[in-house]
From TrEMBL:
Residues 362-422 form the Purple acid phosphatase C-terminal domain. This is Purple acid phosphatase. It catalyses: a phosphate monoester + H2O = an alcohol + phosphate. Residues 139-332 form the Calcineurin-like phosphoesterase domain. InterPro entries: Calcineurin-like_PHP (IPR004843), Metallo-depent_PP-like (IPR029052), MPP_PAP (IPR041792), PAPs-like (IPR039331), PAPs_C (IPR025733), PAPs_N (IPR015914), Purple_acid_Pase-like_N (IPR008963). It is an enzyme of class 3 (hydrolase).
Amino acid sequence: MICPELRFFIWVFHKKVHITQGDLEGKALIVSWVTQKARGSNLVLYWKEHSNKMLKAHGKSKKYNFYNYTSGHIHHCTIRNLEVHHHHYHNLFYHSVSDFVVLFLQYDTKYYYMVGVGQTERTFWFLTPPKPGPDVPYTVGLIGELGQSFDSNITLTHYENNPLKGQTILFVGDFSYADTYPNHDNNRWDIWGRFVERSTAYQPWIWTVGNHELDFAPQTGETKPFQPFKHRYRTPHRSSGSTEPFWYSIKRGLAYIIVLASYSAYGKYTPQYMWLEQEFPKVNKTETPWLIVLMHSMWYNSYDYHYMEGETMRAMYELWFIKNKVDVIFAGYVHGERSECISNIAYNLVNGICSPVKDLSAPVYITIGDGGNLEGLSTIMTEPQPKYSAFRDASFGHAISSIKNRTHTYYGWHRNQDGCAVDGDTMWFFNRFWHPIDDSPDDDS
């Protein structure tokens, strides 16, 4: 039993802080946190490293109800244009963004920020991304289906100790697994937020929704999907013209990242379809040569679990991916698989051709849904291993993708049972636009 004094300390101190990119270009940051009892301050103070000029931004907070659960006060605050012009106000302790002429964000700069101003003040820091450009190295971490198990903790610790330090995490869905508890126990969202804060408060996590974020529970009267996610997590969807927070795009260094929603309508004439159709022409491979797509339900999968569940989305969008030279697709759902460069765009019901074939103009598909979920590992696979599957391993782990320049990216997948510097699977990617050659490691030669 927790004593009342300690319980109060937990309510005040644990704020489940997380950050994500706040716009398309990387010139803004969304800071989110939770206060459990009193609403507290919506204010965020922030300042550049080695600077004594504090700035402030004001956010908003809301609570939500889910069945018999009532959330704490969930705060969201967008820090925009972190570097502002200041005149004779230099004697003030901090400055308000609204009081100044906005200039620009300083790229590749360390900033500190504070939440809980005037109450339990907590300070964190983050690094802004480099200016989008074709030859600025950038390293991302990749985690999916993290959950809150013993293995989840090992995965996150393994990632934190990886000598190839990720500068942001591309998260491919399935957060807290609250929906696996009775009545979708939303307290599990709070626990998960505290668990991942050690990473999410210091580097942006780019969110992708999975099936465990649906939280569709008509048996309890909860008939609007994604409600806990929508209240707790923000995405910069409006800056890329999206009408929903589940699909959007961002630029991060030399990568253009498109996030898609496997569990929102994606057929012809749907909002997601029409948005994606207009999004591809915006990609400038001279500025951001690497085109990365995140989704939850994988299109190519040789595991028995969730086999072909992404098939209808593949049939809709695969040709677009090839025509627009998508380099790699990261998905979740099952554990540890990497495809060859393949496509199945020849498939139709008339000619009967329905086998994926090697296609050097097609992207590589990587399934990384192996963070540590309570459902355990998927171990039943199609035998023999299909030709389109280059590598598969049913283990928990994470991946690092180190984008070196416009032509080369180094990818490494790390199993939890190995040392932090040990690669369970590796691959050098060659850019589809700038270096379009066969990057398959096991071709016939």
